[in-house]
Amino acid sequence: DVQLQASGGGTVQAGGSLRISCSVSGFTSDDYCIGWFRQVPGKGREGVSCMRTRDGRAYYGDSVKGRFTISSDNAKNTVSLQMNNLKPEDTGVYSCAADTVEAWVFGIGMPEIWGQGTLVTVSS
Question: Taking the CA of residue 22 as centre, how many other CA atoms within 13 Å lie in the half-sphere pointing to its CB?
Answer without folding.
Answer: 30
